[in-house]
Amino acid sequence: MISTGSNAALAGRPEGLEQLRSLLDTALGALGDAALKRGGPVAAGGPEAAVAAVGEVLGGGRFLAEEPSAERVTELFEAYARWSVDLTHPSAVARMQCAPTAASAAAELLAASLNQSLHAWESGPFALELERRLIAEMASWVGFGPEAGGTLTPGGSISNLMGLLFSRDRALKDSGEVSATGLAGRAVRPRVLCSAAAHFSVARAAGFLGLGRSAVVKVPVDDRGRMLADEARRIVEGFAPDEVPVAIVATAGTTDHGSFDPLPELADLAAEFGIWLHVDAAYGIGALFSPTLAPLLDGLGRADSVAFDLHKFGWVPASSSVVVVRDRKHMECLDEQAVYLNPSDDEALGFTALLGTSLQTTRRSDALKMAATLLTVGREGMGAWVDACHAQARYAAGRIAAAEGLELVADPLLSTVIFRCAPTDGTPVDDESAWNAAVRRRLMTDGRALLARTKIAGPDGTPRVHLKLVFLNPMTTEDDIDALLADVSAAARGLAREAAAER
């Protein structure tokens, strides 16, 4: 008998299952206790208190302890739960980070305990087929047919990277297969068009793929962050003979305004010039479930590839991202024959894996938790939850517009609201951007609320710090929103008074 010096056990064995039941009770208890002790969306105390909490659990020891202890695991669970952000709290509105359904959380536990992988048939036969079926259905959501392909990824940044990988190999294939021969010596200058409001992962992906960040051409946007299709056309028509447009990257749901680029017009442009159209719908895919908001995604089915997340509008634990491609032949650059993983004779007899669909080899079964939420909530339920979050944003925007000391930037398009605190009661504020930033930090430190921040140009064109609410919790009520805004206003007034007293 192998001894570990502790009561550690492997999860799949009988003794491991018994230990898992006990630890699960401990974890659930920690979750319940944390909500009571936390009091808000995050524990109070700010960064110093969080650092101290980790130090208290570890003490002076190391993770790989000389004397392992199950009691220390209990302490770890309790501290982790207490210092985690409570995504079910109505004042946790900082990030595109959803609270998962109970079904998907249970699926996560099952997937972790069984630890299936998708790189070889014998590593997870049911998991493999489940992902294939899920990808096929997701491709149909966006309007792709039976020839479509795709894969699950660790996040929207990797999904965008893969979309640009496929577009790069297609655009530059005339001078040799890029994945085989590389980019060196090619007498062309690749270009990727995206809006000035596109996610930073587009430029980063261009760098990773050897195209270079300088290959990314930022197309001007309107006052809501939507790409101007006429400007995109002007740029394409003005390319020099050696400039090769690799892709147009459209955004469906920008991180600030939640804006949607004009997909039909961009699809027309891409088709006219033979350019790959990739749509980053990491956030905006939620509109697809809503009969009211679905028109925002008109033209999505004309894209060549689409990236979207279900760990934003989807209520699935991260990571739950997807990239789907209209024609799976463009995924051939990922083909790999490894004799120890997918030998051809095994493949011919149906023992097929997903090694040739992903950048990863060992890969977890994220499809299980996605399927658990989709089967539990259903399409109508998903639409109702998206509509609820949209309604919350509209309500919050109305309250902000009517409130003294708060200024709304624009009516929400999806579920984000951008606003700023403005001085009231004749109390002057020296630097309004620094003041708004400080309001956010004060709310976080006090454990009262978690808000995001961004920069929006003011009337004079100078970027100023603004605050942002992101609604992804369909259970949030109007009373909850009123309380949140009251906390924001109170923090703003308190900081203004403190600053005035110090003058």
Automatic annotation (TrEMBL):
<dbReference type="GO" id="GO:0004058">
    <property type="term" value="F:aromatic-L-amino-acid decarboxylase activity"/>
</dbReference>
<dbReference type="InterPro" id="IPR002129">
    <property type="entry name" value="PyrdxlP-dep_de-COase"/>
</dbReference>
<dbReference type="InterPro" id="IPR015422">
    <property type="entry name" value="PyrdxlP-dep_Trfase_small"/>
</dbReference>
<dbReference type="InterPro" id="IPR015424">
    <property type="entry name" value="PyrdxlP-dep_Trfase"/>
</dbReference>
<dbReference type="GO" id="GO:0005737">
    <property type="term" value="C:cytoplasm"/>
</dbReference>
<keyword id="KW-0210">Decarboxylase</keyword>
<protein>
    <recommendedName>
        <fullName>Pyridoxal-dependent decarboxylase</fullName>
    </recommendedName>
</protein>
<dbReference type="GO" id="GO:0019752">
    <property type="term" value="P:carboxylic acid metabolic process"/>
</dbReference>
<dbReference type="InterPro" id="IPR015421">
    <property type="entry name" value="PyrdxlP-dep_Trfase_major"/>
</dbReference>
<dbReference type="Pfam" id="PF00282">
    <property type="entry name" value="Pyridoxal_deC"/>
</dbReference>
<keyword id="KW-0456">Lyase</keyword>
<keyword id="KW-0663">Pyridoxal phosphate</keyword>
<dbReference type="GO" id="GO:0030170">
    <property type="term" value="F:pyridoxal phosphate binding"/>
</dbReference>
<feature type="modified residue" description="N6-(pyridoxal phosphate)lysine">
    <location>
        <position position="312"/>
    </location>
</feature>
<comment type="similarity">
    <text>Belongs to the group II decarboxylase family.</text>
</comment>
